[in-house]
From TrEMBL:
Record family assignment: Belongs to the mitochondrial carrier (TC 2.A.29) family.
Protein name (database record): Predicted protein
Signal sequence interval, chain numbering: none
A Pfam cross-reference name: Mito_carr
Length: 295
C-alpha cells in the first residue's frame, strides 16, 4: 500500500474512471450483504434466517446473485457521482493570497454531494432496477443483460427508470452525507494533526461517512426497494390489476401503518454492514489510486 507522500490530486478524468473502478472493486466484496439487506426489506426476518434459507433453498453461490448487476450499477452510478463530485470540488477550490489552496466549506460539500448523487442516480437507475430484482428472489433472471432486455421488452423501456424519484431522493440524501462527511472528516483529521493522510485516516473518515449515510438514507432506500420490486395486484374495488404502490409516499405510509414507524429502519444493520464497508473500501481504493497516479 502507498504511504503518506506529498499531497496529490486526481484529474477530472481520473476522478471518473478511478471512482467507478473503486466502486466495482468494493462491490465484489460486499455484494452478499446487499442481497441480505434487500431481502430483509422485502420479506422481513433476521439476517441469519435469510442466509440460512437462501443457502438451503438456492445454494451457497446464490449469495452472489446479482453481482453482475451490482458491478454495472457501480460502472454507471459510482463513476458518475464520484467523478462529478471531484470535478465540483476542483471547481470550487480557491487559492488564497499566499498561494495556498482553500477547499470549499462543509455546506458547499453537501451541495456538491447532492448534485453528484442526483446525476449519478439517473444514470445508474436501469442497473439499480436490475440489481433489486435479481436480489429480491421474485424474478428469475440469469444475468443482468437478460434482465435489461426482458424489462424493456415486457414492460417498456421506461420501466428501467421505475422508481427514479425515490432513487434520486435517496442518492441526493446519501451522497450529501457520504461525500461531504468523508471529505470534511478527512480534512479535519489532517488539519488538526489528529491523523496523517494515509489508510488509517481514510478508514476513520469512511466509517464516519458510512454511519451518517445509513442513518439518513435508509427510509428512502426502503421505499425505493419496494417500488422497484413491486408487482401488480388486484384492486378489490375496480377489479383491475394495479401497481402495488402509488409512489414512495404510499410505500412509507403503508409501512408505518402496517408495520410501525421503526420498520422504516428495517435492515439497518445489514444496510450499514453493506454501506459502511462499501464506503470504506471505495474511498480506500480511490485514495490508493490517488497516491499512485495522482499529480
Amino acid at each position: 500500500m502507498a504511504t503518506t507522500e506529498k499531497a496529490k490530486t486526481l484529474t477530472s478524468a481520473q476522478g471518473f474512471y478511478f471512482g467507478g473502478l473503486s466502486g466495482m472493486m468494493a462491490t465484489c466484496v460486499v455484494q452478499p450483504v446487499d442481497l441480505i439487506k434487500t431481502r430483509m426489506q422485502l420479506q422481513g426476518g433476521s439476517p441469519v434466517t435469510i442466509v440460512s434459507n437462501l443457502i438451503k433453498q438456492e445454494g451457497i453461490l446464490r449469495i452472489y446473485k446479482g453481482l453482475d448487476a451490482g458491478i454495472l450499477r457501480q460502472l454507471t452510478y459510482t463513476t458518475t457521482r464520484l467523478g462529478v463530485f471531484n470535478a465540483l470540488q476542483d471547481y470550487l477550490t480557491t487559492t488564497d493570497s499566499n498561494g495556498k489552496k482553500v477547499q470549499p466549506n462543509f455546506a458547499m460539500k453537501i451541495v456538491s454531494g447532492m448534485v453528484a448523487g442526483g446525476i449519478g442516480a439517473v444514470v445508474g437507475n436501469p442497473a439499480e432496477v436490475c440489481l433489486i430484482r435479481m436480489t429480491s428472489g421474485k424474478f428469475n433472471y440469469s444475468h443482468v443483460g437478460q434482465a435489461l432486455v426482458r424489462i424493456a421488452k415486457d414492460e417498456g423501456i421506461k420501466s428501467l427508470w421505475r422508481g427514479t424519484s425515490p432513487t434520486v431522493t435517496r442518492a441526493v440524501i446519501l451522497n450529501a452525507a457520504q461525500l461531504s462527511f468523508y471529505s470534511q472528516a478527512k480534512e479535519v483529521l489532517i488539519k488538526y494533526n489528529i491523523m496523517q493522510d494515509g489508510i488509517g485516516c481514510h478508514c476513520v473518515s469512511s466509517l464516519i461517512s458510512g454511519f451518517a449515510s445509513t442513518a439518513v438514507s435508509i427510509p428512502v432506500d426502503l421505499a425505493k426497494t419496494r417500488l422497484q420490486s413491486m408487482k401488480t395486484v388486484l384492486d378489490p374495488v375496480t377489479g383491475q390489476m394495479v401497481p402495488e404502490y402509488k409512489g414512495p409516499l404510499d410505500v412509507i405510509t403503508k409501512a408505518i401503518k402496517n408495520e410501525g414507524i421503526l420498520s422504516l429502519w428495517r435492515g439497518f444493520t445489514p444496510y450499514f454492514l453493506r454501506l459502511g464497508p462499501h464506503t470504506l473500501l471505495t474511498f480506500v481504493f480511490l485514495e490508493q489510486f490517488r497516491f499512485m497516479y495522482g499529480h
